[in-house]
């Protein structure tokens, strides 16, 4: 029987994150759920897998605990195998790390735009279209004409935003990310920097691909996702990328053909960055995996980080 999987987030003031964490951990453990939930003073962000009714009860608990007047929406999918090994609820400074906990999307954020409205925005020549994701994600796919901030982490986005505000203070901006959470926080930052017209794609790229007909789909390439699929195509089917075990970046077929690629050890994107001791550990792990495969068993030492 397939497992239900839901990804969700909500920006909302949380008075006592530690108390919410403890309550959630106990509640999820009692229902044998797997996944991760982050709790911060700015809200909650998580992905859960297990029985659908049990997951819904967690969302209902959160609604009550956080004093929300409406339900927490999530993106529901299914999995044939558990996508997580354990259940972890953690308290963090931010539920998505911008490095600016003073930015408060729970109080103000950009205008949410439906996928249908988004296509009309893409046709406006005055709009600055901004991909808020990391550069390695943008390389896999993006919308035509989108600006790549060239970031390696979301923490670097504020510097890009400040430079953009100095160069184009009056331009409308439209932002997007994988599921909506990063561009929601980024849109609050943009408003703080003085941008008056700020738009964000409702539900992110995944909602767009799910909602828009093939003939109206403006997405180019694949979409990087943070699970075992690595990337999905325009039909949300598993794409053609694999992930480097060392640096976690997505690899195309050309990357895999490179002499710098060693499965489980290195790729063209990290071979010059890899320290010798880590390379040795990864090489030893690769050998153990190969030996276990030859024996018909599963290597259990060390996993994905």
Task: Characterise the protein shown here.
- Mean pLDDT is 90; it is low at 298-305.
- By secondary structure, the chain is α/β, with parallel strands linked by helices.
- The chain is globular and about 60 Å long.
- The strands form five sheets. The protein has a five-stranded mixed beta sheet.
- The chain is built from nine helices and 15 strands.
- It starts with a strand and ends in a 10-residue tail after the last helix.
- α1 packs antiparallel against α2.
- It has helices at 17-30, 52-65, 115-122, 135-140, 157-167, 181-192, 204-211, 253-257, 276-295, and strands spanning 3-11, 34-40, 43-50, 74-79, 87-91, 111-113, 128-131, 141-142, 173-176, 198-201, 220-221, 223-224, 231-232, 242-243, 250-251.
Short description:
The chain has about 300 residues and is of the alpha/beta class. It has helices at about 15-30, 50-65, 115-120, 135-140, 155-165, 180-190, 205-210, 255, 275-295; strands at about 5-10, 35-40, 45-50, 75-80, 85-90, 110-115, 130, 140, 175, 200, 220, 225, 230, 240-245, 250.
Main features:
15 strands; four-stranded parallel β-sheet; disordered C terminus; 32% helix; five-stranded mixed β-sheet; 305 residues; alpha/beta
Write the layout of secondary structure elements.
Blueprint: E1 3-11, H1 17-30, E2 34-40, E3 43-50, H2 52-65, E4 74-79, E5 87-91, E6 111-113, H3 115-122, E7 128-131, H4 135-140, E8 141-142, H5 157-167, E9 173-176, H6 181-192, E10 198-201, H7 204-211, E11 220-221, E12 223-224, E13 231-232, E14 242-243, E15 250-251, H8 253-257, H9 276-295
Parallel strand pairs: 2-5, 6-10, 7-9, 9-10
Antiparallel strand pairs: 1-3, 1-4, 2-3, 8-11, 12-13, 14-15
């Amino acid at each position: 029987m397939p497992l239900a999987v839901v990804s969700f987030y909500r920006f909302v003031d949380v008075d006592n994150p530690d108390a919410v964490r403890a309550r959630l951990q106990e509640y999820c453990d009692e229902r044998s759920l797997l996944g991760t939930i982050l709790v911060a003073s700015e809200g909650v962000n998580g992905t859960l897998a297990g029985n659908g009714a049990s997951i819904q009860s967690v969302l209902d608990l959160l609604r009550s605990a956080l004093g929300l007047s409406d339900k927490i929406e999530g993106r529901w999918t299914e999995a044939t195998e558990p996508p997580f090994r354990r259940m972890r609820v953690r308290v963090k400074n931010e539920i998505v790390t911008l490095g600016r906990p003073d930015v408060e999307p729970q109080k103000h954020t950009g205008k949410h735009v439906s996928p249908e409205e988004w296509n009309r925005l893409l046709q406006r020549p005055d709009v600055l279209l901004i991909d808020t994701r990391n550069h390695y994600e943008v390389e896999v796919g993006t919308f035509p004409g989108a600006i790549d901030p060239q970031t390696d982490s979301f923490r670097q986005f504020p510097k890009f935003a400040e430079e953009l505000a100095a160069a184009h203070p009056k331009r409308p901006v439209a932002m997007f990310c994988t599921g909506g959470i990063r561009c929601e926080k980024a849109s609050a930052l943009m408003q703080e920097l003085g941008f008056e017209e700020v738009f964000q794609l409702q539900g992110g790229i995944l909602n767009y691909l799910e909602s828009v007909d093939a003939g109206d789909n403006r997405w180019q390439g694949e979409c990087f996702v943070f699970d075992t699929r690595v990337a999905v195509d325009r039909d949300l089917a598993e794409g053609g990328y694999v992930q480097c075990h060392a640096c976690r970046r997505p690899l195309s077929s050309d990357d895999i053909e490179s002499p710098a690629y060693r499965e489980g050890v290195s790729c063209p994107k990290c071979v010059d960055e890899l320290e010798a001791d880590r390379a040795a550990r990864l090489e030893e792990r690769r050998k153990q995996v190969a030996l276990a495969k030859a024996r018909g068993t599963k290597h259990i030492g060390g996993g994905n980080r």
